[in-house]
């Protein structure tokens, strides 16, 4: 399960919510090769966990990778429906992420604890996964959210 974020304007979000069948074309269709997006790979769940201290819950807005956003219908885009966050939600998330540096995320990552808490993809120690993998993806995520907040953009979250 690979976590992904793709920018979307509020008007694109409105269109997708009104016409959920368009989501697969929006994410995977012709002309999307050059579209900006961030791929969190398998670090998405670890990022959620170190931001919230929770496997699947946590406080808003830092729980956005697992809990926030509006599902785009019931169209399965890989592992369930995509979720959209408006520009206002992105601004709020970017503000919450701003004081949390990548270095702080690195200090919070404990791969033994990720294994004990069954944080996806599991077997962190056995597979040689490192805190640096989580930190790098968090940096990409934080930078994207700050840029989208500045530009007044929303985002589509999806797992494939």
Structure explained in plain terms:
The longest helix is centred in the C-terminal third of the chain and has 21 residues, at 131-151. The radius of gyration is 15 Å and the shape is globular. It is an alpha+beta fold. It has a single domain, classed as Hypothetical protein yfbM fold, CATH 3.40.1760. The protein has a five-stranded antiparallel sheet. The mean pLDDT is 93. It has helices at 10-18, 23-28, 44-52, 87-97, 102-108, 111-116, 131-151; strands at residues 3-8, 38-41, 70-71, 83-85, 154-159. Helix 4 crosses helix 7 (131-151). It contains seven helices and five strands; from the N terminus they run βααβαββααααβ. Helices cover 43% and strands 13% of the residues.
Outline of this structure?
The protein has 160 residues and is of the alpha+beta class. It has helices at 10-18, 23-28, 44-52, 87-97, 102-108, 111-116, 131-151; strands at 3-8, 38-41, 70-71, 83-85, 154-159.
């Amino acid at each position: 399960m690979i976590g992904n974020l793709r920018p979307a304007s509020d008007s694109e979000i409105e269109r997708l919510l009104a016409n959920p069948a368009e989501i697969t074309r929006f994410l995977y269709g012709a002309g999307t090769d050059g579209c900006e997006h961030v791929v969190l790979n398998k670090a998405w769940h670890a990022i959620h966990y170190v931001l919230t201290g929770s496997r699947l819950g946590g406080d808003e807005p830092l729980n956005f990778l697992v809990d926030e956003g509006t599902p785009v219908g019931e169209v399965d885009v890989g592992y369930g429906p995509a979720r959209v966050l408006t520009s206002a939600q992105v601004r709020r998330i970017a503000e919450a992420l701003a004081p949390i540096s990548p270095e702080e995320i690195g200090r919070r990552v404990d791969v033994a604890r990720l294994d004990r808490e069954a944080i996806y993809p599991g077997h962190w120690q056995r597979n040689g996964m490192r805190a640096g993998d989580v930190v790098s993806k968090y940096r990409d995520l934080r930078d994207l959210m700050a840029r989208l907040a500045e530009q007044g953009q929303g985002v589509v979250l999806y797992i494939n």
